[in-house]
């Protein structure tokens, strides 16, 4: 039996009859191709095994659509790529730190395979080829078929198959050259393809077949019914159509009587969905805060990696201080600086915690120091936002919240239990600052944060610029008046209260899902 008829007959046998033997044969024929493709993409054998099982689950569900294909190798290769990319996207954020650590380790490691730079681009290059060329290389190298088998599967003779493979190798080499990788068109690309093959672990074929059969059982029964329907005679088909048409008519009266009950159930479901919408938006805000925290940590790790690389290559010069007539900066003794009221200067320039240019110049921060300090502030704010999102809930306005307004013009939120997470986040921030700026500059920078956040040193005062609070507190927003471009904002704490007027961009992320209608009103008004 030729390779052409084997795939087609096995797929048809499974789709039409639900044959487990046929499906297991398909898995055994192609499991190495799928596993090797997944492994090249994700680089982890455990993930590659999971992706392999998922690909054959998809095959089991879609077998009825593939019965006319002479070979499913190309379809399996593409599906393995799609499953791998989906897995990588899902794991990207969680593994960002490990990837940065791997980059640091790669700086210290010497000696790599000549194929390491090419293998990650191999499947992308294959997808850029025409379908016939891609299938020829997949069959010849990734499934290790003979040129004769390749020719039969492509519907050409062995000599034509050889030419097709040679031409495809040349086009794949051109793809590598476009990305700055010089690879010989013939033996070089063939060696990359051969080096990329990987045998699947023992037992993976059985587990993948089992997963596919379990998922494809219902699909196989449906496919069997469709195949039987296609084999009916004209008379049998006419009778079947008559029966099919009669069934909806018989059920019509029953459906009419059931309509009102279903409409009532749908209305109840709609009301429940609306109540859940606000909660889902809150969850989205928490996820966004967690994402910002991960990004800040990743930027900090990348900065440390760059510093390590520069030190290894001897590119970090020693700082040289000298008086410059043209410079706006001058170095002064620390004792003199202690006499200047630095605490009156704000360390940040906005509510999002961006380091102010004045503080940066005063402390003579280098570019790396400023970035690492900014990353520490970003981690604090992202961690605070995530902790607040878990403890925040909307509350009905009280009489003292209204201030002469109607209840629909005031939105109130309560936050409780922020003492412990706030204490940990602020301590982490204050521990990071000396490691970047040293103890002297860290103390000066911390003094400039009094108006932006609260910390227990007896010097805090209530400020409208404050964005982070500890303990329990109550937040309320007022609907913007006609012609106003800002939103009224008020926070009540245990022993203090602050009020401010916020623009649309300054509204904290955790409250934006609850204030979208007011935010749209602000954004629609022209700037004043």
Account of the 3D structure:
A hairpin with an 8-residue loop joins strand 3 (473-478) and strand 4. The longest helix has 79 residues, at 234-312. Strands 1-2-3-4-5 form a 5-stranded antiparallel beta sheet. The termini are far apart. It folds into 2 domains: 3-222, no CATH class; 313-524, no CATH class. The protein has 18 helices and 5 strands. It is mostly helical and 528 residues long. Helices cover 63% and strands 5% of the residues. Helix 5 crosses helix 12.
Structure in a nutshell:
The protein has 528 residues and is mainly alpha-helical.
Write the layout of secondary structure elements.
Layout: H1 3-17, H2 20-42, H3 45-61, H4 73-91, H5 96-108, H6 119-128, H7 131-142, H8 147-154, H9 158-178, H10 187-196, H11 204-230, H12 234-312, H13 334-338, H14 357-362, H15 367-391, E1 392-395, H16 399-402, E2 410-415, H17 419-447, E3 473-478, E4 487-492, E5 497-502, H18 516-524
Antiparallel strand pairs: 1-2, 2-3, 3-4, 4-5
Helix pairs in contact: 1-2, 1-11, 2-3, 2-4, 2-11, 3-4, 3-11, 5-12, 7-8, 7-9, 8-9, 12-15, 15-17
Keywords for this entry:
five-stranded antiparallel sheet, 528 residues, 5 strands, 2 domains
Number of strands: 5
Cross-sheet strand order for the largest sheet = 1-2-3-4-5
Q: What's the order of the H and E elements? A: HHHHHHHHHHHHHHHEHEHEEEH
**Fraction in helix:** 55-70%
Nearest-integer average pLDDT? 82
Broad structural category: mainly alpha
What proportion of the residues form beta strands (DSSP E)? Answer: 5-15%
Distance between the termini: 80 Å
Unreliable spans: none
Could you tell me the radius of gyration in angstroms? 33 Å
Q: Provide a count of the helices.
A: 18
Name the shape in a single word: flat
* Total domain units: 2
> Oligomeric state of the chains?
single chain
Give a quick account of the main beta sheet: strands, pairing sense, barrel closure: 5 strands, antiparallel
